[in-house]
Design goal:
- There is one protein chain.
- By secondary structure, the protein is α+β, with helices and mostly antiparallel strands.
- It has one domain: CNF1/YfiH-like putative cysteine hydrolases, CATH 3.60.140.
- Helices cover about 25% and strands about 25% of the residues.
- The strands form four sheets. The chain has a six-stranded mixed sheet. The protein has a six-stranded mixed sheet with strand order 7-8-11-10-12-16.
- The radius of gyration is 18 Å and the shape is globular.
């Protein structure tokens, strides 16, 4: 069993370790093998360890809507950014409302959501090809998506809850990079990050109806994406859904890193909406071109 420096056990899914738990100045965060050799970019995914928030948001809460003390969240972002090598003064935040909308970010957007108001809304994904622009996306069970084009040095990050997944936000991210930067999907390296696993993600029939609409052309994979519990409930595999979305967008299978860590199974390490029954802080993914 792997443990954090605080003695918290880490529950991984596959046998092969593809996610590294790092610690600097008391802040614990994760990096992904698929992106670690891309020296032209920096990336990190937060844990709940190493911040100043208290109570149900303890301690590295990165969600401004999750606690009244904004200064705590700013300090948490400052600590996380410093530990991961991406300062808060480079950051720009998405405006997540479970859409599949993608926005191109540039130098003029730095600070939005932190030091000034955002002049956009309904943005669950962001892309950039500019250096020094740190994309910040939030999570707490929903699926983090990261994409990197090593040929054109462009990046993208997206939040994929079940609504975004059924709206194909992953595919929209790849298509936006192609439209904006000329990215070829087969060049893109992608990560599907820590999020709720199928065993923990029970959904109702209305969610599965949306899934059937989304994958109507692929009835052969329905049994792999969800199973019927025969009580009006289903267990949905968002990880596999996101993988299918990337594949349909042209990403190569070997360029998709699947998750090892479930947020719900690791609720001492990662914030989880399901595990905490809605009383939690937020995690964040950071990506920046160096």
């Amino acid at each position: 069993m792997e443990y954090t420096s605080s003695g918290i056990p880490v529950i991984r899914r596959p046998q092969e370790k593809r996610t590294t738990l790092r610690e600097k100045n008391g802040v614990c965060f994760l990096t992904f093998e698929a992106l670690e050799n891309e020296k032209w970019l920096s990336h990190a995914f937060s844990t709940r360890l190493g911040g100043v928030s208290t109570g149900t948001e303890s301690s590295l809460n990165l969600g401004f809507s999750r606690e009244e003390n904004r200064d705590n969240v700013m300090e948490n972002f400052r600590r996380f950014g410093e530990a991961a090598g991406m300062p808060i003064t480079h950051m720009v935040m998405s405006y997540q409302t479970h859409t599949a909308n993608i926005r191109r970010m540039g130098a003029a957007d730095i600070g939005k959501g932190f030091f000034c108001d955002r002049d956009y809304s309904d943005i669950d994904g962001m892309i950039t090809d500019e250096r020094g622009v740190c994309l910040v996306t939030s999570f707490a069970d929903c699926v983090p998506l990261m994409a990197a084009d090593p040929v054109r040095h462009a990046i993208g990050s997206a939040h994929s809850g079940w609504k975004g997944t059924m709206s194909d936000v992953g595919g929209e991210l790849i298509r936006a990079m192609h439209s904006a930067f000329g990215t070829h999907p087969e060049d893109v390296i992608t990560v599907i990050g820590p999020s709720i696993c199928q065993d923990c993600y029970e959904v109702s029939a209305d969610v599965i109806e949306k899934a059937k609409e989304r994958y109507a052309h692929r009835e052969d994979i329905w049994d792999r994406l969800w199973y019927d519990k025969k009580n009006g409930k289903y267990q949905l595999d968002l990880w596999e859904c996101c993988r299918e979305n990337f594949l349909e967008a042209g990403v190569l299978p070997e360029h998709i890193q699947m998750p090892e860590l479930c947020t719900c199974c690791n609720s001492e390490l990662l914030f989880s909406h399901r595990a905490s029954k809605g009383r939690h802080g937020n995690l964040a993914a950071l990506m920046e071109i160096l």
